Amino acid sequence: MDVVELPRRLTEEERDELFAGEDDPFEMAALTMPPDRRKDRYIVVRDHGRLIAAVGLLVADVEVGSAAFPVVGFGGVIVSHTHRGRGVFRRAMEPALATAERLGPDFAVLFCLRKNAPLYARLGFATIDAPVTAAGVAMPIDSMWRPLEPHAQWPAGPVTVPGPMF
């Protein structure tokens, strides 16, 4: 397996390859979600040239209480259903976290289904207990943060993502 950073968005063909025929690969079709922001770069995993996992990254501003600051937003995290349960998630996330640490912000933030929160918790993410909104829509899924700098602590208060979610 090869892990590569793409300094660009995924093409439609690459997304189709990742989804491998799944109609709702993120399992969010039944939820009312805010619009999704396009990612600036992706960490991808290929197996024999075939795209099997991807983690999207971008730097975006958030507001917590009266403070505004940038975070590295993780989004579009997916392992093709044909490769789940084989350690590919960690293989994609660890280099994505290393890339996030180089981008500058003190925090990484992501949104996930509750059933996936334990996977992210094993990588140091913690649940944000305050209400979170993105583009004016209350997030119907878990919101999680992780320090990217030693001793960084997530501030208390409601979280607002001024634009689309990650």
Automatic annotation (TrEMBL):
Ranges where the N-acetyltransferase domain occurs: 5-149
Molecular function GO terms recorded: aminoglycoside N-acetyltransferase activity
Q: Which GO terms describe its biological process?
A: aminoglycoside antibiotic catabolic process
CDD domains per the record?
NAT_SF (cd04301)
Pfam families linked = Acetyltransf_9
What is the protein's given name?
GNAT family N-acetyltransferase
Q: Which organism is it from?
A: Solirubrobacter phytolaccae
Question: Taxonomic lineage of this organism?
Answer: Bacteria, Bacillati, Actinomycetota, Thermoleophilia, Solirubrobacterales
